[in-house]
């Protein structure tokens, strides 16, 4: 999950133990740099220059760089941080085979995809947990008040911000800095706005994990969970999504590995509130018109659209969440459904949860 503090922790460890290593390097933002014209070669050149302590090491090709890095890692005790790795090719180009790394070396990898760590067989995986309320309040206060705790007048509203951020350091820092020296009225206005429109800086960082999903099915599963299935049993959700052709048996584990969702001890699906908001915002931004969006999860919005007397043009399918039983009569008998292409599925939150499929 982006913004949880992986890079900050890696920097802290690096700075704490760097004096123990003559040869060391910190490669930051690998995912971003790798996408450049000379990204892989630039990273190899930086790594070799840092370790060999030269001003510039010219790498002629990626394979040539791999050979030089292998030679270096076999013979020197090194400390290397590979920050924000997102594909296996990056690890292959920058650290090669772990069995060929010199004894006593330390390689620290930060990634949003735990599957990569399993593939190369790392010795230890540390999952970064979100901050508790006390830690959150202190971090937020340093940015919002330039001190370790809020002023008395702002204590209660600060707690509201902490709740919204859900222990995510990035959100605490961004909102704290934004609210610095603003009035209490402005704070309340910002909080009200955030409930409708998520903060762009936070969303941009979180969306990297979503954009990194390999296919549309994984993205669809994530959006469906954000809109409909939070707190629902994993088996129940898997059955429904498999019935929709989304292959949730593999899709849900992928989302867990990417830290986009989690499976609680009671087998219920969970998700960070800000990730939920990010997913729903993706759906909202797909069209300014609700009736053209792929998913509707607020029952009032559903009723407003489906009970209008004006014929609407719908996308090929859309998914809607029905909260109240008494809406069913209004919906299934209304003429607007004659003009729908496909109503993919309806989900009822009633005593007996079930799935209805209407085909047209």
TrEMBL record:
Pfam families per record: NB-ARC (PF00931), WHD_ROQ1 (PF23282)
Record InterPro entries: Apaf_helical, Disease_R_plants, NB-ARC, P-loop_NTPase, WH_DNA-bd_sf, WHD_ROQ1-like
Domain of life: Eukaryota
MF terms (GO), sorted A to Z: ADP binding
BP-aspect Gene Ontology terms: defense response
Keywords attached to this entry: Leucine-rich repeat, Membrane, Repeat, Transmembrane, Transmembrane helix
Ranges where the NB-ARC domain occurs: 1-147
Transmembrane segments: 336-358
Annotated Disease resistance protein Roq1-like winged-helix domain residues: 217-287
Protein name in UniProt: Uncharacterized protein
